[in-house]
Input
Amino acid sequence: AEKIFFVGDPMRVEKVSKHFDQIHFQVKNREFYTISGRIGNTELSVISTGIGTDNIDIVWNELDALFNFDLSQRKIKETLQSIKVLRLGTCGGLQEDIEVGTLVNSKFAIGADSLMHFYDTQEFTNLPFQKALLDFQVDYLPSSPAVYASEASTSFSELVGRENFPVKEGITLTAAGFYGPQGRSLGRIPLRSADLIDQLKKFHFAGLPVLNLEMETSGILGLGKGLGHQAASLSAILANRSRRKSYRNRN
Output
């Protein structure tokens, strides 16, 4: 469908699609699970991406090929089509005042995963945000990999933020892994940026703080914008990293 939900875990696909009035199609391959159907007269799909922006790179490029390539001729179509993708994900919260269970609408994303460095997308980048990020990295995170800037589709992101549930708008850090890249260590290897969480809490852009960290959003927003589609990311905070509080022990 032209309106698509991205989820990470394949088991979440059926949790989303159970709200469909009718299911037309489903297919599984590795961590990728797709169900398409409709709610009322609206056609929808939900796709699991697995973990990380490496998988996002596969899903976005092949989705775009379905809509914008003549696959029989292996040529790009003359008229390009734009689709809408909304990530429904989970994340860790950074700011102490953000409660577990809060939904974060990612207006911007900091990519610490390197994906968008492989694409020439300067014309799609918010240059003031990119400059602020690089200045911040030089001062506070000099030992971290070079970061990049991603931005949600403005109109789509605003639409998500108008729904009738509590949601915070902010900046998301997308990490390249779950442990060291997110400031976690099991003690076997020292971290280069042991104070990653504390440093990230200092960064602001356009009045927005870094609210959360996860592993997909920067690639979803960056590739989506670069390919001419609309993309937004909505994530539930399952743990507050600053307060060491998780969904399981939130009381």
Notes: The mean pLDDT is 90. The chain has six helices and 14 strands. The CA atoms of residues 17 and 69 lie 27 Å apart. The longest strand covers residues 230-240.
